Amino acid sequence: MGFLSRIFKQDKPAGASTKAGRRTSAKKTAPSPTAAATNTTSAPAEDDIPDYKVGLTGEFDESGLAKRVTLAFDEDSDLDDVETLWVAQLSSKVVLKGKVPSQAILDKMVAVAKDVEGATAVDTSQVDVG
After folding, report:
1. Is the pTM of this model over 0.70?
2. Is the residue at 27 inside a domain?
3. 67-97, pLDDT tens digit by residue?
4. Which of 14, 36, 67, 117 would give a disulfide with 20, using CB separation of 3.0 to 4.6 Å?
5. Residue 93 domain-assigned?
6. Helices (H), the chain
């Protein structure tokens, strides 16, 4: 099992990426003024999605950053799934929670998480080492 399947109960989808790339449509058109004025509850336009809310395949996802960080952990050959560690996010801050076996593993996880597009900080205050 990996971080993504353990924490988010999903397998890696085709086209998944740790990058905050958006799906592109063949042709973008501006909404009419009438449609824009009456449609206030729709999801944000793809270009308006903050990097930390971009999901694994470029879609809007409230947990997008956390999912892309778990994917990055899974794709790093130096990291094994630490079953006592969880990944969450508060806006663009990655939050690690739980327990890791060593400071070296935690340091590696922090470095990997910081490399994920959209991450501005990594909070390890809820991680026990040892």
Report:
1. yes
2. no
3. 999 999 999 999 998 999 999 999 999 999 9
4. 117
5. yes
6. 3-8, 33-38, 64-75, 103-114
